[in-house]
Amino acid sequence: MKFYNLIIKYRFWLSLVLVGVGVILNLTGTGFWPTFPIYFVALIGLLSHFFIGPLRLIQEPMEKGNIEEVEKILNSVWYPNLLYKPIRSTYYTIKGNLAMMNQDFDTAEKHLKKSSDLGAPMPEAEGANKLQLGMMAMQRGDLKQGESYIRAAIRAGIPDKESEAVAYISMCQIFMNKREFRAAKDFFRKAKALKPTTKQVVDQIKEVEKYISRMPG
Question: What's the angle, vertex CA 53, arms to CA 58 and CA 114, rounded to 5?
């Protein structure tokens, strides 16, 4: 596995070396066909570098929490628009998540929108993207846009119960603001039924619960 990762990491330069070897062999009298396999392997290396990229290398540093290495790998993608569409979507998702970690919400929104427009490789990833966009819209006070994104996230599917509870409690708050209390209560029940355990989500549900019992409908 480590050897394969090294090949991915340096395949662009290895491909150039192979091209150089092929040219030298041709200049020293070796015919084209004997050197064709060298050119062919070099071509595959160059194409995979630009169209597939190095995103396979991200898994290990992500698991270790080595964000600097993740950013370094992402920065090694010279032309993101050349990446195969599902890989490009994943690339922008990761870029967006890193920007969110750095509290750079404008950049995060830009990247996540690109990923969403491309279509995530898995519906669950698309749902997570749209939920993040919805939460950022709510932070800006744009409840209409927030509702639109969060509804889309719920339709696409959200990968874990904690995030799903966040989606429902956010919809509850939106409908409380719109004074549509019956719908707000329905979303609140859905959020509570998921039994989230994350302190932040639990505290949010407890806070909303103070008001929900007083509402008509």
Answer: 85
